[in-house]
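Before we proceed, please read the two lines closing this message. Tell me what the token row says about the fold.
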Amino acid sequence: MSTIDQELLKIYTSKSQADKAISSLKGLLLGIKSDDEVNEKEINELRKWVIEHKQLINRNPFNEFMTIIEETISNKIPPKETIEDLFWLCQKYESDNYYYNAVTTDLQTLHGICHGILSDGNIGDQEIFELNTWLSENEHLNTYYPYDEIRSLILSILSDNQIEEEERIVLKAYFKQFVKLQDSELQKQIEIETSDINISGLCTSEPNVDFLEKTFCITGVLKRGNRETLQNDIKKLGGIPTDSVNKKTDYLIVGDNGNPAWAFSCYGRKVEKALSLRKDGHTITMIHEFDFSDIIDDLI
């Protein structure tokens, strides 16, 4: 077989290899979670699964799997939560080909559009009209963050056929949440312009937190401290830490995973659940761990 044929074979079979690996992992997870407990031997089996499929480590969603498993091994995420997260990823992959479909690509495109609009520090009428056209042409992104929020903002701005300066500033305030400009001076200028605007996006900025008898859930890997310490601090302030998101959850603390655009690919099982509950009318405040840590530091 020629080198070209071998390369083509790799391309054609890689998808089936990935599917087979996902199915084997899903079965392994189902077996592990069947008794509702996770022990060290079962985590060791996950380690072996990683070794067995290391050739796929640079491919989505396997890099996600590896990261989650490694974080569990280093005790950054509880084992039981890891099993749930991995199983959720398997279901995502199987149900809608989450990592390979147009949705992820289009959300990344939307991110790029917002970046481009903000890149000179000015948001003109034509840019808003063009963004509105793009949003209208991509309604298949309904229910995905941040499409819904941006679409709502744009429709509100255009509802009276006039674009006010304050509305441009609101857009800047929203875009800056997930766009980091290379021009630090321009970034500072935008920060100053939007300092009085409080945008409630995925994670609430400058949140007001009431601890007494409120329910808190933590998701993701924390860069500041660890879960046990944070949960103890929540208890000290009268809050109730829990392991899962439900209708009774008041606050979801989102760990920083080092990727400012993480919400555009896979933002996690608990965040997805919280967003779904918010759309159904339940008040769940999502707070970035850095903001929450600052609040804790001020109170303890």
